[in-house]
Specification:
By secondary structure, this protein is of the alpha/beta class. The protein is built from 8 helices and 7 strands. β1, α1 and β2 form a beta-alpha-beta unit. The protein binds guanosine-5'-triphosphate (GTP) and magnesium ion.
């Protein structure tokens, strides 16, 4: 299957990723030349200039509002029939993009979760790995489906599904809700396993806040609150 214009948006949010952004965009272009590359940027460094030079569509969100509001704006602004999200830090395999897009466009899935947790990735610290396992176990029990990675930044979403989904963009761990709501509401979920590489640049993830919001989001969705 060849991806045509309008089929796919690769959406990323960026805060000070000038060391990674050029390479990530090149990697995406190499496998999906017709895709819209959309970046919601909250950087102080040259990330947005570099992204524009590389032909990405850049929406500025400054001062930064956090991961959730940036991702929400990116998802809402995407033009493609499928939206694939990735971190813009070199951790996720761009070469898997066509396969993820095809699972939605051809095979009828609404969400594809690119799970990092087939085995422990070398690039993930033990504390994060064990936390991820525990939360995935809790969600698997509560939602009756084997889930391995609630926090993956690499997903494919059917755009029409995202447009119909209500979620809380504020607070940490938004990817948890973007996975569990479709699952609860009967949309079709596919899990594929991916390799996860070392990050270029500094992480901004705050483990305690992320853990607290993860539990809150799991329970909120399960109990039908909000
Ligand atoms: N636009 C925007 N992007 C952000 C913001 N916070 C984080 N990001 C970007 O979101 C992506 C994921 O960031 P985080 O969830 O903080 O995770 P991380 O720093 O990559 O940490 P790990 O992946 O867990 O190592 C990265 O590409 C960041 O640059 C923000 O407030 N605004
Ligand atoms: Mg990352």
């Amino acid at each position: 299957m060849t991806l045509q214009a309008g089929d796919l948006t690769v959406a990323m949010i960026t805060m000070n990723e000038e060391g990674a952004v050029a390479r990530v965009i090149d990697d995406i272009r190499a496998v999906a030349p017709a895709a819209e590359i959309l970046i919601v940027d909250s950087s102080k460094d040259r990330t947005p200039e570099i992204a524009e030079e590389k032909g990405a569509r850049v929406i500025r969100q400054f001062p930064p509002k956090g991961y959730g509001p940036a991702m929400d704006l990116a998802l809402r602004s995407a033009a493609g029939r499928v939206v694939i999200t990735m971190d813009c830090d070199g951790t996720y395999p761009a070469e898997r993009i066509p396969e993820l897009a095809k699972l939605v466009l051809q095979d009828g899935y609404d969400v594809v979760d690119a799970s990092r947790l087939g085995m422990k990735p070398d690039a993930m610290p033990w504390a994060n790995y064990l936390g991820n396992l525990l939360f995935a176990l809790l969600a698997s029990v509560l939602f009756g489906k084997h889930i391995t990675d609630l926090h993956s930044g690499m997903r494919a979403y059917r755009k029409s599904m995202i447009d119909s989904l209500r979620y809380e963009p504020r607070g940490a761990a938004l990817p948890v809700e973007l996975l569990l709501r479709p699952l609860r509401d009967g949309f079709r979920l596919k899990v594929v396993f991916i390799d996860y590489k070392d990050r270029i640049g500094q992480s901004t993830m705050r483990p305690l806040q992320t853990s607290w919001w993860t539990v809150k989001r799991i329970l909120r969705v399960r109990l039908g609150l909000g």
